[in-house]
Amino acid sequence: MLLIYCPYCQIERAEIEFRCGGEAHIARPSDPEKATDDDWVEFLYMRSNTKGIAAERWRHIHGCGRFFNAVRDTVSDEFLKVYKTGEAKPDLEAIAREAGK
Amino acid sequence: MSQPFRTEKGGRIDRTGELTFTFDGEEMHGHAGDTLASALLANGVHLVGRSFKYHRPRGILSAGSEEPNALVGVYRKGDQTPNLRATQVELYHGLQAVSQNRFPSLGFDVGAVNDLLSPLFPAGFYYKTFMWPKSFWDRVYEPIIRAAAGLGKPPKNPDHDTYGNLYAHCDVLVAGSGPSGLAAALAAAETGARVILCDEQAEFGGSLLSENSATIDGKDPAIWVAEIVARLAAMDNVTLLPRTTAFGYFAHNFIALAERVTEHLSDPDPRLPRERLWQVRAKEVVIAAGAIERPMVFPENDRPGILLADAGRTYLNRYGVKVGHKVLVATACDTAWQAAFDLADHGVEVVAIADLRESPPESLVSIAAARGIRVEAGCVVTGTLGRKRVRAALLGRMMTSGQVAAGGQIECDALLMSGGWTPTVSLFSQSRGKVVWEAETGAFVPGKSVQKERSAGAANGLYGLQASLTDGYAAGEGAARAATGKSATINHSRTSGGEAGTGGTLGALPHDRNASRVKAFVDYQNDVTAKDVKLAVREGMQSIEHIKRYTTTGMATDQGRLSNMNALQIASGALEKPLTDVGLTTFRQPFTPTTFGLFAGVSRGDFFDPVRKTPSHDWVVEKGGLFEDVGQWKRAWYFPKNGEDMHAAVERECRTVRESVGLFDASTLGKIEVAGPDAAEFLERMYTNPWKKLAPGRCRYGLLLNDAGFITDDGVIGRLADDRFHVTTTTGGAPSVFATMEDYLQTEWPELDVWITSTTDQYAVAAIQGPKAREVIAPFIEGIDLSAEALPHMSVKEAMFRGIPCRLFRISFTGELGFEINVPRRHGKMMWETLAGEIEKHGGTAYGTEAMHVLRAEKGYIIIGQDTDGTVTPQDAGMSWAIGKNKFDFVGKRGLERPDLKAENRKQLVGLLTKDPKIKLEEGAQVTTLENPATGTPADGHVTSSYYSPALGRTIALAIVRNGHALEGKTLYVPMPEGSIPVEVTGTVFYDKEGARLNV
Ligand SMILES: [Zn+2]
């Protein structure tokens, strides 16, 4: 059971309070009409499925209910960074280097 | 009473009283402090089970949780718990144990014929022997394997025990209470850190409890243990958990402990649970799990009477039990010599020490000489004799050529063996750490930590008493400092004796026997021999993971703690690759077998899953209605009257709704309040339909897609005000629709000023449907005009129901005039009983979900998840009318434009009428264009809904059929075992196609 820090509640809570929402920073094209079929397939189905440092969405579903983003090492399950929805995607390579991964 | 193998004195048992127990019905005696294994040995019983595959007689091998052979069933409260390790079962008065895997008796087992037929059971026999013919699997092979193989029989009754569960936090968790564990716990506790110390055994102390040739601070080690434990027990910051196995190391230092609370008691307090699951979050973990001894792989190394050397020493020193009267000690390392010396000191005849090494340490040889023990150096055991107990061993002389020369036979009634030591790295491995090979000790030891843990003592590859203590202190201090930043200075105890010693061996030992005839066991519990491992390699298995699965070595309950290193060495030799290149399999949770009860805890029976009841629940029970489970909800299914069967009851309910009026509990439908200045814009983007122009007081059917373009939910949405909507969802879809709305709102359109709130549990909903619906509700509704002009079909108003504020919808899921009244949940029972009474006066009826399904199918209203399956678009379902053509965007709009979703030949929702109106199709049956398609022909669709329709006086069905919309009027077929059923394709609306009955 993971321990996850909610950046809105500003507290660490057990995983059962949260729901993972898959890869982060997959933006829905703002003008869907202009998106090509390939764009749409990319948006719908293509995920990097990273073994290692990945940014993913989490929702504090049984707490404040907010979505936020977290950088997690999918091998060790270590959380390396937690940030609010809307903040820019961090440099994952820099985070990995800093963590010695 | 006679316990012929009990020592005169010594051991930690309570000799002041005797306990009576039975094994396979035979009465025996032991003492408090015994395990079942030590008590059996004291009574001279070695034969305790039959092996898994060959049904060979097997005896107690070890004194710990790694025991592979001595699996027994123990009766408590009239039921049997199978597969308990006798080495872990504490003796109590009246204990009833039985042996397993034998028929008809342990002494004479017909399954033993498998041993003679062993050529039939080579490595991979599961894959080879039972391949053909395929049909034999179900009827012949599997039942035989299940009957012949296997361990104990599962109990037949529900578990009568209870199980506890608690969460705990600590600074330092110490797993294991041998020398390094105790030192670590003390060092950490003295800093003030919160410490949990657990050990799988009944008493703390580990190996120190059977160590009497060394001293700590000049004291007997057991006395030192008692003093340390007393110190720890007196500290408020320490939790001591004996009989508690750390069985799982999970992410973020989450450790699962299984505490055995009452199983060791003959008459436990009935309020106490059998076991307790501790879920511990530790800031730091010290793994002090020790090491276990390796068996030696020589022919017939599995006879009863053959034990690990340290187990023999433990039984002697800790339990006061001699494993035999004439004992042969076979070893490749120093530590086993001490077992021989201790036995000799208790007057046991040690017939010889056979050491594999050409020149064992001179110091040991001279001690042996002083006790008159015969020493055979450069000597290997090449076989054993005896059936139910070893009676002699064959010795071989190691020659410089690597060959073995026969070295005679030696009589013995017990054989102690030691191939050296293997650090217990299971927990470390579970923490996802990788082990590293340490050539000098010939062992895999913990490498870099991945989580906040450190191994100490023998688990860390450090042997010898002083080294273990020193490592333990350092680990405890280090862990406390890392967890709390605090440190403390404590006196470190000094030891004398208990040296680490040298030596050890891996793999199969050489012998002079006919290799094709003898069995040298590597994995006792799964009956895997050295030959099997070699065969697996010859047959192409290269990786240890494949060898493991092919031979099943290491797949027993000890997860290969006893067998892995020997198997690895044998594989390495056969593959001609260095051992480190063959790889080690990963240890996984749980460390030892763990009961299902522990995991289930209180989540059983009524507590297994919450039950959600609607306001009409008690009324339905009272009226004899039947319930249907819909997710966690109990929904009224139908209401049989006067002995009606389901068909008759449903037919009556349907007719009554169409002819007069029916009452239905719709409280389970999902409800979401969408409010705020951008509420209409938000729904505009979520649902396919347009919402901005919907006037307050009006409703619209809403269709929800995912962004792929497929239908995921539907429901009626009412606009209460410019900035407020009452959204309904399907019963099953309520949580996911709400979560999806939150997702889009928070992450895609955070600029929208909208709040969404789940209100499913806030409202009780009664649906009143039928021509007399208006008359039924009229007496109770105040504040609004119910006429068709003022409240037309698809409208919503806020009103009062018997003085209670309500939301009154005029909507219909039956095709009749209908109302749905929403009142606050606490008034639901009053509303239901009021309306149920009123309905009676009008000749109406309550109806359940079955009639609801028939009525909606007659009207072609779809059920999401029944008539759709996640690949159906609005066009496929014939619902293009629900799409707002002029909308800029909505969830699924772009998805619908994908070529495959607009392609020809998609499966589409149609109605089906059987040519014979009496035949009701099976839901799920395949639909084909050919009357008798050849086997293997793909179907063109399937039946999604099928009912007898009282309104039509015949059966009706809905189906998803390829190109269905173009096939209207055509004949298709539903092939069934009894013959193909011809059907005509129709539209989906079977009753009142114009909708005249709705607008009254
Ligand atoms: Zn939160």
From TrEMBL, chain A:
<dbReference type="Pfam" id="PF04267">
    <property type="entry name" value="SoxD"/>
</dbReference>
<protein>
    <submittedName>
        <fullName>Sarcosine oxidase subunit delta</fullName>
    </submittedName>
</protein>
<dbReference type="InterPro" id="IPR038561">
    <property type="entry name" value="SoxD_sf"/>
</dbReference>
<dbReference type="GO" id="GO:0046653">
    <property type="term" value="P:tetrahydrofolate metabolic process"/>
</dbReference>
<dbReference type="InterPro" id="IPR006279">
    <property type="entry name" value="SoxD"/>
</dbReference>
<dbReference type="GO" id="GO:0008115">
    <property type="term" value="F:sarcosine oxidase activity"/>
</dbReference>
TrEMBL record, chain B:
<dbReference type="Pfam" id="PF13510">
    <property type="entry name" value="Fer2_4"/>
</dbReference>
<dbReference type="GO" id="GO:0008115">
    <property type="term" value="F:sarcosine oxidase activity"/>
</dbReference>
<dbReference type="InterPro" id="IPR013977">
    <property type="entry name" value="GcvT_C"/>
</dbReference>
<dbReference type="InterPro" id="IPR036188">
    <property type="entry name" value="FAD/NAD-bd_sf"/>
</dbReference>
<feature type="domain" description="Aminomethyltransferase C-terminal">
    <location>
        <begin position="907"/>
        <end position="992"/>
    </location>
</feature>
<protein>
    <submittedName>
        <fullName>Sarcosine oxidase subunit alpha</fullName>
    </submittedName>
</protein>
<comment type="similarity">
    <text>Belongs to the GcvT family.</text>
</comment>
<dbReference type="Pfam" id="PF01571">
    <property type="entry name" value="GCV_T"/>
</dbReference>
<dbReference type="Pfam" id="PF08669">
    <property type="entry name" value="GCV_T_C"/>
</dbReference>
<dbReference type="Pfam" id="PF12831">
    <property type="entry name" value="FAD_oxidored"/>
</dbReference>
<keyword id="KW-0560">Oxidoreductase</keyword>
<dbReference type="InterPro" id="IPR028896">
    <property type="entry name" value="GcvT/YgfZ/DmdA"/>
</dbReference>
<dbReference type="InterPro" id="IPR006222">
    <property type="entry name" value="GCVT_N"/>
</dbReference>
<dbReference type="Pfam" id="PF17806">
    <property type="entry name" value="SO_alpha_A3"/>
</dbReference>
<dbReference type="InterPro" id="IPR041117">
    <property type="entry name" value="SoxA_A3"/>
</dbReference>
<dbReference type="InterPro" id="IPR029043">
    <property type="entry name" value="GcvT/YgfZ_C"/>
</dbReference>
<dbReference type="InterPro" id="IPR006277">
    <property type="entry name" value="Sarcosine_oxidase_asu"/>
</dbReference>
<dbReference type="InterPro" id="IPR042204">
    <property type="entry name" value="2Fe-2S-bd_N"/>
</dbReference>
<dbReference type="InterPro" id="IPR041854">
    <property type="entry name" value="BFD-like_2Fe2S-bd_dom_sf"/>
</dbReference>
<feature type="domain" description="SoxA A3">
    <location>
        <begin position="519"/>
        <end position="601"/>
    </location>
</feature>
<feature type="domain" description="GCVT N-terminal">
    <location>
        <begin position="617"/>
        <end position="887"/>
    </location>
</feature>
<dbReference type="InterPro" id="IPR027266">
    <property type="entry name" value="TrmE/GcvT-like"/>
</dbReference>
